[in-house]
Amino acid sequence: MDQGSAIFVKMMCSVIGFGFFSYGKKQRALVPLLVGLSLFVIPYFISSMPILLMTILALMITPYFIRFSID
62 and 46 in contact (C-beta within 8 Å)? Predict the structure, then answer.
C-alpha cells in the first residue's frame, strides 16, 4: 500500500474507535469502551498493513461475542 492509503486506513481505524469508545461510555459497557481505546492506539504499534487490518477486524467483532457492563 502506498502512504496515502495507509494514512486513510489508520484514520478510519481511529474514527471507528471513537464510535466504539463513545458508545461504550454512554452505555456503560466495558468491552466497547476498551475496544475503542485499543483502536485508537493499535495503529501506532503495527506497521504491517495486513496484520493491522486483521487486528482491526478482530477487535471490531469482539463486542459481539463478549458482553460485560460496568454496574
Answer: no
Q: Rounded to an integer, what distance in angstroms lies between the CA atom of residue 32 and that of residue 40?
A: 12
d(CA 19, CA 68): 18
CB 53 within 8 A of CB 42: no
Can you give the pTM of this predicted structure?
0.84
Q: How far is CA 6 from the centre of its chain?
A: 16
What's the pLDDT tens digit per position in 19-37?
Answer: 999 999 999 989 999 999 9
Q: Three cell numbers at 40?
A: 485508537
Question: Which distant-in-sequence residues (6+ apart) come within 8 Å of 59 by Cβ?
Answer: 35, 38, 39, 42
Buried-state track 41-69, b at ≥16 Cβ within 10 A, e below 16 = ebbeebeeeeebeebbeebeeebeeeeee
